[in-house]
Amino acid sequence: MTLTPLRRLLVLAAGVLLLTGVGAWSVLSAADRAAEENTPRAGGPAFAEGRVNLKDPGRLVFRNMAAGPQRDRLVSVPAGSPAGATRTASDVSCLRFHAAAGTGVCLQATTTLGRPSYRARILDSGLRTLRTYPVAGIPSRARVSPSGRLAAWTVFVKGESYGTAFFSTRTSVLDTRGWKLSPNLEEFAITLNGAPYRNADVNFWGVTFTGDDDTFYATLSTREKTYLVRGSLAGRSVTGLAENVECPSLSPDGTRVAYKKRVLGTAALWREHVMDLRTLKSTALAERRSVDDQAVWLDDRTLAYALPATEGRTGVEDTWTVPADGTGTPRLLLSEAQAPPRATG
Amino acid sequence: MYLADRSTPQGATSAQDRLRGTARAVSPTVLALGTVSLVTDVSTEMVTAVLPLYLVMGLGLSPLGFGMLDGVQNGVSALVQLTGGHLADRVRNHKLIAGIGYGLSALVKPLLLVHHLGALGVALALDRTGKGLRTAPRDALISLSVPPERQGRAFGLHRAMDTTGALLGPIAAFLILGVAAGGYDAVFAVSGCVAALGVLVLLLFVPSGKKSPAPAPSASASASASAADVPGERADLRAAFGLLRGRRLRALFGCAVLLGLTTVSDAFLYLLLQRRTGVAEQFFPLLPLGTAAVFLLLALPAGRLADRIGRRTVFLAGHASLLLGYGLLLWAPDLPALPYLVLALHGAFYAATDGVLPAAVAAVVPERLRASGIALVGTGQALARFCCSLAFGAAWAAWGDGPALAAAAAGLACCAAVAGVALRPTGDPR
Lengths: 345, 430
Hints:
- The complex is a heterodimer.
- Helix content of chain A is about 10%, strand content about 50%.
- Chain A is built from one helix and 27 strands.
- Chain A is mostly beta strands.
- Chain A is globular, with a radius of gyration of 23 Å.
- Chain B is mainly α.
- Chain B is about 75% helix and about 0% strand.
- Chain B contains 17 helices and no strands.
- Chain B has helices spanning about 10-20, 30-60, 70-90, 95-105, 115-145, 150-180, 185-205, 225, 235-240, 245-260, 265-275, 285-310, 310-330, 340-355, 355-365, 370-400, 400-420.
- In chain B, α4 (about 95-105) packs antiparallel against α7 (about 185-205), α5 packs across α16 and α10 runs antiparallel to α15 (about 355-365).
- The longest helix of chain B has about 30 residues, at about 30-60.
- The two termini of chain B are about 15 Å apart.
- The chains are: A mainly beta, B mainly alpha.
- At the A-B interface, α1, β7, β10 and β11 of A face α2, α3, α6, α7 and α11 of B.
């Protein structure tokens, strides 16, 4: 094949045209789809703009995932009849959210220098921002203590590991009284299997607080194993309690944790369990599907958690409930909604 | 024997000389290969930049535990590089093997569009394989297209263009996500198109470097000159490893391995930087940008300097720069400029070594084994760096970050001293 310089340029120009066309088409169709996400769908929930109050005990507050202008906004519905209710929408958007006793933590995405950046906002009961903290990566978990005094969040940090593995986590805890931030739980002293433990590969995620505003439970991961740990903020220490426990969530009465247990080697398959903290005995729940979420307790007998929506867009979740004692069957609580917190006064 | 510029007739080169004034002749082959690398890196980095977001936001994964593959892949990639270099010499067609490598990386891009973790893993592994295959033949093509006294500059230009692509990739990706929120499939599709464009540029504008006794297939490729390359002597594995019997390549190989064993991986360096200088967390993702920017600015000047004052000097100065960076991190004075200084030194280290090493290797390896020689040193270096990562991780876990860094710095100082002696000039051309 002999090509003169001119012919080479012609072939190149043709190639550039063709490839630009394909690229432009894919970007435009993705932009169309993105616009569609901002258009309400037939059969979706109804919305009313309004005030969302974190201290209203009669309402559930959660991240709305239904298509439309209210996508990703915090919305509230009556706790008694959540399904099909008109959703009262605020103007605050979050990727992860949790609230208790009138304090909310909202993890958000923005951009800096054309790259994504993330922050944590602490909200008061009227969703006004009290403080903002930059965070190092993609939001994963958020929790507020029952009293509303402490907040914790976990983000995925890219490229912070051996052999340039994709991710590690960073978990921070904030005391809103005095605004004291513990930026990285990895600095806490660790006791594992009865002995002091140190390893650079330690990761924490999924904090859940007790009522004393000092003790917390969390997941610790090291050497490809995960542990349930109990920690003390004042003591800056954590102690391992049990193996293969992720994303614990403490019951309102403080006696049990719900958690996800890996059930098939290292595959991304989890079953939701509840462990009695006195006996360390676990009960599998009636939910047979893989739950990858930090569940929330609606009351001492009922758990709520998010599952990928069975129909519709990827990245959209429905919220389900199941009895905490292993009986019963899962029920759909809210469609296109990321697991809400307990309605608290 | 030195082979004159393969793709441009003598007259054209001197005309370009005059046109470009001080820049003088830049081999069109190097420019074409630089363009291919630039375009391909845009494509690769687009994917790399959005992958974490895609996994978490798009696929709804909690990605811990998925990253384990990465370290293993680095080892595999090094071995693939050796294969690529050897194959290129064996079939006597560097462009063919490089093209297969670039083509493989372009072809697997559509696999990313499938919403499936397995497909994603396969696509990433094949992409790495493509990268491993193409590296050595591409560097061999660069070295074969310019005279020995301009090797440093050619590699410097190539690395600068390559890094430009790496910097542009994420910007392109986030522009697309800005237009189409959640449009990861569009990012992957555009990445595929860009990769295909890279292959097209390679096919159209890079001469093959083919060494066959048959007449040159293209008017521009002066393959006849290389036909003088001893027939009968085959570029087999024994010959490739036989290269290590040569004193000068053995010295280069040994130094690359020794220095690789004490070169802390980028991920660790940024982590150290953040911990020891208190860079705010939200700036962590921006740290690699600093290194890349300095690498981009200094790659060409460092290459030219290497041609003028000697590759050994520049190569060692690069490692001195890295050592200085380690020293600053260990000392950790309370200077606001400290993170910038360390990143600048890290970028300077890459500029002074990344292209200079293959240039040095090219000078001591015969043409028929050029890709094998480059691959051999590259593989040795990559495996050594991988071992360093494992050892450094263990040392960090056992002793903490300060002592681990001190150990790496001490090791680097010793290895650099050994390299200074092993690479001392022996009256040969630089």
